[in-house]
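Protocol step 4 of 5: obtain the predicted structure for the target chain.
Materials: sequence only (see below). No template structures provided, no constraints applied. The aim of this step is simply to have a reference model before the mutagenesis design in step 5. Sequence pasted as it appears in the construct record:
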Amino acid sequence: MNAEDMKKRAKQFALRILKLADSLPRTPSGRTLSGQVVRSGTSVAANYRSAGKARSKAEFISKLGIAEEEADETQLWLELIVESGQVPAKKLDSLYKEACELTAIIAASRISARQNKLAIGNRKL
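Step 4 output (structure tokens):
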């Protein structure tokens, strides 16, 4: 998957998160979970996109790290939404799976970029 495809995928994930948040009940717990999942879920796309504009390899790796953390955090909020009874697990299965896949893809990209940076730094000129 190339960077453009990944940006589109992360953006679609953010849009799905927004729809989920709009469907949560307007109870104190529903509002809290809604706000948290929106912040982390949309941050995945924002930070992945920001990584593409990084001014250095270190900044790129850092932004990917933030996107990875946000994708992982989104998994937690989705788990809490289900376990608190806000939404049945069956309705969130594909969204949760996508959060897990995005986390794994971004983590692999971050690890690869870090290894490439280290390999470049260890070269003798």
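Step 4 remarks: The mean pLDDT is 93. DSSP finds four helices and no strands in the chain.
Proceed to step 5.
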